[in-house]
Design a protein that fits this description.
The complex is a heterotrimer of chains A (606), B (204) and C (504). With 606 residues, chain A is an all-alpha fold. Chain A has one domain: Cytochrome C Oxidase, Chain A (Up-down Bundle). Helices cover 58% and strands 2% of the residues of chain A. A two-stranded antiparallel ribbon of chain A has the order 1-2. A two-stranded antiparallel sheet of chain A has the order 3-4. A two-stranded antiparallel ribbon of chain A has the order 5-6. In chain A, a hairpin with a 2-residue loop joins strand 1 (275-276) and strand 2. The longest helix of chain A is centred in the first third of the chain and has 37 residues, at 95-131. Chain B has a domain at 61-202: Four Helix Bundle (Hemerythrin (Met), subunit A) (Up-down Bundle), CATH 1.20.120. Helix content of chain B is 80%, strand content 0%. Chain B has seven helices and no strands. Chain C folds into three domains: 28-117; 164-341, Cupredoxins -  blue copper proteins (Immunoglobulin-like, Sandwich); 347-503, OmpA-like domain (60s Ribosomal Protein L30, Chain: A, 2-Layer Sandwich). Chain C contains 13 helices and 14 strands. In chain C, strand 12, helix 12 and strand 13 (471-475) form a beta-alpha-beta unit. In chain C, helix 2 (36-65) runs antiparallel to helix 3 (76-109). The chains are: A mainly alpha (606), B mainly alpha (204), C alpha+beta (504). At the A-C interface, helix 4, strand 1, strand 2, helix 8 and helix 9 of A face helix 1, helix 2, helix 3, helix 4 and strand 7 of C.
């Protein structure tokens, strides 16, 4: 374990700062202002993390429930009725509830866990620390960002308990299924969907105002010497992610607003020539495809909003634990920028079979396959980082490596899906489900775990249990591959089917369904190894000794702040940056912190 | 933190106060929202065979004039504040609030006129879009109004109480807030002008 | 019981793991540092073991699962898209192997226990260019091949003239399959309340002669090597027309027709024969006890979430030779045959008119036709089953005005006189007269004109002695067109005077 030497604060050489105390706020902190309505980025980051963990458990549990139905479609489990009541009469999950489960699983995991829980946690924690700022541009707005997220969470959670149940028309919320409030069409398209839309509105606002802070802070509050090209890759990732979010979330909001107008006020934005039970409804002129365009204009960038922060984290973790610079820093920055730009022009690859003009389909295929290239570059650079490193295979490093493995597997199958002619057969089948779970679900989770294990000492001044962490890693890695690798072979199998019993064609994978479900249950349970580890270590984890401590030997600024979490982060002046963040194993030294001045004759790397 | 204090702490920045920068980013985001709404209109107009163009009621021209006036007045309020003419500041701020409320009133009345002339919310899509887009603009405006009201209340309460005044009105942080608020109003005005011209062009 | 016990075992196992982990860290705490060095050595080995397991597992998956996947494509384009898929998977398979090996091998070979320092190497631009260009080239190749096939599939100009056409309409939770019959033409569908009803969900216009030989079927029947154009739609929510064996998928969108054109290449029997040579298909089906290939059939499924029974929209698809198809078709009963008797059964125009004429001999209607406004109005008045409402309107069919004016032309006199007679005979009846225009010109002016015309009609009736209190006039301008204003015919239909009975 590395203990920090005098590398931390004695670098304030001649830059004219007055030696005033960095602690600006001498106000009394109440329990409310310190733990609940905190405006401190570190506390807000923990709030996002813990809310994210809560939703992760809920979302995972939902998947176990519907996987039970998929594996054992002909069996009953009385215990289900005990817990779920009318939704599982006779011990079998009803078809209506099944669709609510898959809808809520998607919504919760994509938005609440992997966007709120991932970006919210790490952007908040790392941006001020790693760029050398006291806090975010606006602590107040930051606090609001969490509490809107919390409000969204409460509303979504409550929707489980209403009489008609939560939204059940798919996380993609397509009209007319979700555009007709009449419960005859779909039970979950009643009040449950209105609550979904309200929760999503709060969520989008939370995400937008969080992103405002991230961008404003990164661009305006870097400390002296911290030029853009001396920022760690985590910050680049969080910055670009925030930019994508700011520009794409409004489209989803617009789509949902039009949908609620159709639902509540009987407009016809998405509805035309609707016949229900032989009765022609009065809607005229709308198009369901309009919604899909608006939805996927966010929906596609959304997956990059999820994965880019994880990529940034992995770049950082791999460098630190390999004791080697990230390979190709500039290429890594440019590739995120390329992904950012391209992510806005590929959305209709989710719509290849909606009857859109084939020329459009062609254009979107082209850009979709192009976006594979910057992603591939990143993979090669990560592997290059490991090459000839001196890798400490700690838990964070293991998860980072696992991320790369999963991202390769998932990303490659995207190449088949992105080619429109091939997508005709694959669209809305389990091949798609396998693809996005591996490339986005599992990968992003691995990135998140790498981040939590790595920065836990920064969050709480203690270490998580390594042994338990590594067991968690292997169980999840092996288990996740067991769940999703074979799933690719279910090529023709349609998605969102409660049972395949009505079709001869689709009845061939029943044994595989059981295997996948069992693997899923084991992986779900294995996550409790993490949860127990996490909460236990907050109070009883191995403490970092000394006032300053850099347990992993990182070069970046967050390790130059004291172990104790202070308002304003550094007790004295802000650190001054003299070099890029990847001086590992250079000139015989294991690492050189960014705050160490260049020696005469020393060449600047990177 | 004031701009000055921030300068002391960080010297690598874009030249704009971070919170002002954040407002610009927020404007980009809101622009995307209105862009999405107006694109949806263009798509539907192109698609839908029975789209019915029509002339917008004159009341929307009046409301445009009102909101431009609002921008002018609230900018004058800011100028008064900077020149420490606080009575003028309060009055102009109050006048801005009235103009904002008048704008909303005219918009809602405009809806009534639209319905009466055969363009109800649930009628032809061309009509529906007007309600949709003006109501979304109106919601943003309401947020602006709420913040303006808070400001006004603080400004009024500070009249006889110099200590209150110093804590809540006359300090650098509050000036920043006010500048952000005025910036936001100019933006909302600009969005309305865009929408007004957009409707004019596309409903011919 | 088994499930419960397994659950308990797993939980206990986890508890043990936690305790072991805790114990192992206590010892490292005493040493004041966790032994990353040796742990890295162990993990290096474990990662290599994982790599090997991953490849073994993949190979095992291939072996077990490939035979169970869908059989070869039974359509022309399906063969091509399958080929594209296989090529793609081959390429990505190679990349998969190379990158995973590099990743895990490096983690093993360069972990800190292997005893060397890290090599400070920041970047290599040549390498970046190489691994940008090569993937770009490969992807470009895949895109090109994909595009070629994509445009071939959707090329609407190169379609056979003698193609079959079948209309498929999705609804919660079934497929309505309509065949055009021998004339290969579908009867028109009209989306208005007059045509759409629970017994006519498609809104077929029975007055269109093309509809008279259309028939419904409970399965899709196709002819080997004969191209078919599927005309797709949906009534209520999104559905998706999915024929897995033919590699066909296209969304069914309410309000927007879509289509998919393809050619089946193997009859059901031929596919069964092919499958009888495949090992997995030779094994016995658990339900029938017979070899699986014997009960093979093509199926249609829905591939877009459409509600709680999305998984239940199954229909059989049968591919046969032309002769068998012709025989099947000749046995199908046209919908019109079953429907036309009900059309006649309704207390219809002919009977009611005659009845009412019998009842009121003084009612003399000059030139009135069976379908004219007079008959409709009288039938409505006499039909006790039909209540007064705001949505039942009848159009004057022999009433004309001077162009752009509210002056009634002389030729309208006969029908107006008939209206006067009816109103005098049925003295309780009150009417609303509505004026409508097409969408040519200024909306305000049209509104005014339609108003004036309605008023002119009322004035004409009042002039012949009808009490003005029984009549109301209103202009609706361009609203409520009854046909597409884009055609002249449609415009002509929209320009009209309608009446609605407000009291009878």
């Amino acid at each position: 374990m590395q203990t920090a030497t005098a590398e931390h604060a004695h670098v304030a050489t001649g830059h004219g700062h007055h030696g005033h105390d960095g602690r600006h706020d001498h106000h009394e902190e109440t329990f409310l202002t310190k733990y609940i309505f905190s405006q401190d980025h570190k506390m807000i980051s923990k709030q996002f993390l813990i809310t994210g963990i809560f939703w992760g458990v809920v979302g995972g549990l939902l998947s176990i429930l519907f996987r039970i139905q998929l594996a054992f479609p002909n069996e009953t489990f009385p215990i289900l009725e005990t817990f779920l009541g009318k939704w599982a009469e006779g011990g079998k999950i009803s078809n209506e509830f099944y669709y609510a489960l898959v809808t809520m699983h998607g919504t919760i995991l994509v938005f609440f866990v992997l966007t709120g829980g991932l970006s919210g946690t790490f952007s908040n924690l790392l941006i001020p620390y790693q760029i050398g700022a006291r806090d975010m541009a606006s602590g107040f707005i930051n606090m609001l960002s969490y509490w809107f997220f919390f409000t969204a969470s409460v509303i979504l959670f409550l929707s489980f308990f209403i009489q008609t149940g939560p939204a059940s028309g798919g996380w993609t919320a397509y009209p007319p299924l979700n555009g007709l409030r009449d419960t005859g069409v779909n039970l979950g398209s009643g009040l449950g969907f209105d609550l979904w839309a309200l929760a999503m509105t709060f969520f989008i606002v939370a995400s937008l105002i969080g992103s405002l802070n991230y961008i404003a802070t990164v661009l305006n509050q870097r400390t002296k010497g911290m030029t853009m090209l001396r920022m760690p890759l985590t910050i680049w990732a969080f910055l670009f992610t925030a930019v994508i979010g700011v520009l794409s979330f409004p489209a989803l909001l617009a789509g949902v607003v039009l949908l609620e107008f159709d639902r509540l006020l009987d407009t016809s934005f998405y509805l035309n020539n609707i016949v229900i039970n032989g009765q022609l409804l009065g809607y005229k002129g709308g198009s369901p495809i309009l919604f899909q365009h608006l939805f996927w204009f966010l929906g596609h960038p959304e997956v990059y909003i999820i994965i880019i922060p994880a990529m940034g984290i992995v770049s950082e973790v791999l460098a630190v634990h390999s004791r080697k610079p990230i390979f190709g820093y500039t290429a890594m920055v440019l590739s995120i920028l390329a992904i950012l730009v391209l992510s806005f022009i590929v959305w209709a690859h989710h719509m290849f079979v909606t009857g859109l003009n084939p020329n459009l389909g062609a254009v979107f295929t082209l850009f979709t396959l192009l976006i594979a290239i910057p992603s591939a570059i990143k993979v090669f650079n990560w592997i290059g980082t490991l090459w000839k490193g001196k890798i400490r295979l700690s838990t964070p490093a293991l998860f980072a490596i696992g991320f790369v493995s999963m991202f390769i597997t998932g990303g490659l199958t995207g190449i088949a899906l992105g080619n429109s002619a091939i997508d005709i057969q694959l669209h809305d089948t389990y091949f798609v489900v396998a693809h996005f779970h591996v490339v986005m679900g599992v990968s992003a989770f691995f990135g998140m775990f790498a981040g939590v294990y790595h920065w836990f000492p920064r969050l709480y001044g203690r270490m998580m249990n390594e042994t338990l962490g590594q067991i968690h890693f292997y169980a999840t890695l092996i288990g996740a591959y067991c769940i999703f690798f074979p799933m690719h072979f279910m090529t023709g199998l349609p998605r969102r089917y409660y049972t395949y019993a009505n079709f001869d064609t689709f009845n061939n994978f029943n044994h595989l369904a059981v295997f996948i479900t069992v693997a899923a249950i084991i992986v779900f349970l294995a996550q409790f190894l993490f949860i127990v580890n996490f909460f236990y270590s907050i109070f009883k984890g191995r403490k970092l000794e000394g006032e300053y401590n850099n347990p992993w030997g990182g070069t970046t600024l967050e390790w130059t702040a004291p172990v104790e979490r202070l308002h304003g982060n550094w007790p004295g002046d802000l650190p001054v940056v003299h070099r890029w963040p990847y001086d590992y194993s250079v000139n015989g030294r294991e690492y050189i912190p960014q705050t160490e001045p260049m020696k005469p004759g020393e060449v600047a790397h990177g | 933190m004031t701009e000055k204090e921030l300068l002391k702490e960080t010297t690598e920045y874009t030249g704009v106060h971070p919170q002002k920068f954040a407002l610009w980013v927020a404007m980009a985001s809101m622009t995307m929202f209105f862009a999405a709404l107006t694109s949806a209109l263009l798509v539907k107009k192109g698609d839908y065979q029975e789209w019915e163009n029509f002339k917008l009621p004159d009341i929307f021209t009046y409301s445009t004039v009102v909101i431009v006036a609002l921008s002018v007045v609230i900018q004058l309020a800011l100028v008064s504040y900077r020149k420490a003419k606080f009575f003028l500041f309060r009055s102009l701020l109050f006048f801005s609030l009235l103009l904002g409320l008048l704008f909303l009133y005219l918009q809602v009345t405009g809806w009534g006129i639209l319905t009466a002339m055969g363009k109800p919310l649930t009628g032809n899509l061309s009509g529906s879009f007007i309600y949709l887009i003006t109501s979304m603009h109106g919601l943003h405006l309401v947020v602006g109004l709420l913040v303006t009201i808070i400001f006004l209340v603080m400004a009024i309460r500070s009249r006889k109480d110099p200590i209150y005044e110093l804590r809540n009105i006359i300090n650098p942080k509050r000036q920043l807030n006010l500048e952000l608020l005025v910036g936001f109003w100019h933006y909302i005005d600009a969005v309305w002008i865009y929408l007004y011209v957009f409707f004019y062009i596309n409903y011919q | 019981m088994v499930a419960f016990l397994s659950f308990v075992v797993v939980v206990l196992l986890m508890v043990v793991l936690v305790l072991v982990a805790r114990a192992s860290e206590i010892t490292s705490e005493l040493k004041d540092k966790f032994d990353y060095f040796n742990q890295s050595r162990l993990n290096g080995y474990l990662l290599m073991v994982f790599l090997i397991l991953m490849f073994v597992g993949s190979a095992y998956s291939f072996k077990e699962l490939m035979p169970v996947m869908l059989p070869k494509a039974a359509s022309i384009h399906g063969i091509q898209t399958d080929f594209l898929f296989n090529i793609t998977m081959l390429i990505i398979g190679i990349v998969f192997v190379l990158t995973q090996v590099a990743l895990f091998y490096f983690a093993y070979r360069y972990n800190e226990s292997q005893g060397h320092e890290a090599y400070f190497y920041t970047h290599n631009n040549t390498l970046e260019v190489i691994w940008t260009v090569i993937p770009s080239l490969v992807l470009t190749g895949l895109i090109a091949m994909g595009m070629f096939e994509w445009f071939r599939i959707f090329n609407s100009e190169a379609r056979a003239a003698d193609k079959m056409v079948i209309e498929v309409t999705g609804k919660q939770f079934n497929w309505i399959l309509r065949y055009p019959g021998k004339d290969n033409n579908f009867g028109n569908r009209v989306f208005d309340v007059d045509h759409i009803s629970p017994t006519n969900e498609l809104g077929i216009d029975w007055e269109d002669k093309n509809s008279h030989d259309d028939f419904m079927a409970d399965k899709i029947v196709l002819v080997k090597n004969k191209p078919v154009l599927m005309k797709l739609g949906a009534l209520d929510v999104l559905h998706s027309f999915y024929l897995p064996h033919f590699r066909v998928k296209m969304d069914c969108v309410p309000g927007i027709p879509t289509e998919f054109y393809f050619t089946p290449t193997m009859t059901t029997v031929e596919m069964q024969q092919y499958l009888s040579t495949q090992p997995w298909w030779q094994t016995n089906h658990p339900e029938t006890g017979e070899p699986r290939w014997k009960s093979f059939k093509y199926e249609l499924a829905c591939a877009e979430l459409c509600g709680k029974s999305h998984y239940g929209m199954q229909k059989e698809v049968l591919v046969v030779e032309q002769a068998e198809y012709d025989e099947w078709q000749s046995k199908q009963v046209a919908m019109y045959e079953t429907v036309k008797s009900t059309l006649a059964e309704k207390p219809g125009k002919v009977e009611v008119l005659e009845a009412s004429l019998a009842a009121k001999p003084s009612l003399e209607l000059k030139g009135a036709t069976e379908v004219g406004i007079e008959s409709q109005l009288v039938a409505f008045i006499n039909d006790d089953q039909r209540a007064v409402d705001k949505t039942t309107w009848f159009s004057f069919d022999r009433l004309t005005f001077e162009t752009g004016k509210a002056v009634i032309k002389a030729e309208s006199k006969e029908q107006l006189d008939n209206m006067v007679s009816i109103l005098k005979t049925y003295s309780n009846v009150e009417l609303k007269v509505g004026g409508y225009t097409d969408n040519v010109g200024d909306a305000k002016a049209n509104l005014k004109l339609s108003n004036e015309r309605a008023k002119a009609v009322v004035a004409a009736l009042v002039a012949e002695g009808i009490d003005a209190k029984r009549l109301v006039a209103e202009g609706y301008g361009q609203d409520h067109p009854v046909a597409d204003n884009k055609t002249d015919e449609g415009k002509a239909k929209s320009k009209r005077i309608d009446i609605c009975v407000t009291k009878k």
